[in-house]
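Notes, Module 5: Reading structure tokens.

Key idea: the token line is not a picture. It is a compressed description, and you learn to read it the same way you learned to read a sequence, by spotting repeated patterns. We will look at two proteins. The first is printed below with its tokens.
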Amino acid sequence: MSAVKASRPDRAVQIGSVFEQSAEDLSPELARERAEEEKLARVKTAIEVQRLEEITKKNARRYRYAAWFLWIAGSFMIIVVTMIACSGCETNGFKISDTVLVALLGTALSTVAAPTILLARYLFTNTNGRVSDRTGAE
């Protein structure tokens, strides 16, 4: 190992580490420690890779559920808007009373808004099970 002078001339800083030394230069204890550190590093890397794969799978499921919900909610809203437009134009004698229109709009709103809120809370929680806000703070 080489010695390099520090900012103070009376002290020298040793450069080098156990990892830079060859296996022959190491004592059995240091060789064992080095092997354990390398094994621990491999385990940590494997755990991190597994965690990232799990996050990727969760995100794929989230996008799939979000797409399904958008199709269902969009189709429902198109049907409701079509019914309201036909009722307003009175085409082919199709007329819905005002109370039925209010009930239709109320159920359409609750049918689309409630699942949106529930799905957003379920699908977009952080690792602690709490709902993330826009700032990322918990």
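Here is the second protein, with the sequence above and the tokens below, as before.
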Amino acid sequence: MAGRAFEVAIVGAGNVGLALARMLDRTGDYAVRVSDCTEEACGRALAQGFRAVRLDASNATRLSGFIAGADAVVAAVPDRLVGRVAESVAAAGRHYLDFSIADAAMAALAAGGRDAAFLPGCGVSPGLVDSVVAHFLDTSEGGIDVAVAVGAIPARRTNRLGYSLIWNLDGLFSEYTSPCEAIEDSRLVAVPALSNRIDLDVGGQPYEAFCTAGVMGAMKGFAGGRLRSLICRTIRYPGHLDYLQLLLDDLGLRHRKDLLNTVLRNGLTDSQQDVVLLHAAMNPGRPDARALEMRIEAQADEGSSLAAGSAAHAAFLLDELASGAPSGAQAMNRAPDGAQGMSRAPDAFGRFLKSRFAAPLVTVREIAVD
């Protein structure tokens, strides 16, 4: 990109926020500043050479001052603060991105009609997964059936549960216990959490996958269209679900979230050596069946692969905005059918794979479908 640096204000200096800041900074095309509510996080950002401000995102006045003058604002904050950041950015008329599932209030902001892009859910899931489903729709004809499985897991299994403290435990508990959604006969339906378990081979290795809340996200907007069915699952090492149900149901910890958190924090490692796996299949059992596998893996010194993958997708979207690509702000906003707008931009998935941010992290291959 030529001309002045595109200014990005990142609210939240956790794993994803700092991963995004590093990616953008390395290009030389962006002027990046970050904020966080903790001194520790701000210290890490300063140590890496970024402009960092200690800021409580719930303070609207200070938040407005921090984002003033930015071309785009990225909310890399806990879900409880996403709405506050989004409202401030909408009022300022700046491009907006986050990594969370859009609720009704966020959907209303996204549908408000503006010149700036308003893009919730720009990580791996929601985000990249949505663009895979859109890719199947855009490169096929007629009604299609899609099954998607995605998961961040330890790069190596070190315990029976096959898991480590990769993600926020409160979010994990919500995924495992909240109602899930799917599309059947082009209609949105509810399915139980932890249901529809399957065995899955990814890259020649065995895994299991089952339904959890949150994977569907904005893809529910595809209901009523050419997508006849869509089921979304989470990938884990074999046996994870059985041990999980022992904890949740046999030991009754489904109703003792505090105790479950204590057990998991005491027993699981805090390793950031994770890998993100994605498996997507269209029309299995039919002549036009297609499938792909994706693997996202960061270098050991780059931290979490989940954070890096989420940051890479967001960085790609910022490149699109900064360069004035054909997808543009208006095309990238939420589409009329309710699906995430960037996912519906022409060939968004293909352009992401060719982007400078995906190349070091992402491998994709087409696979045979049974």
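Summary for the second protein:
- The chain has a mean pLDDT of 89.
- The longest helix spans residues 305-323.
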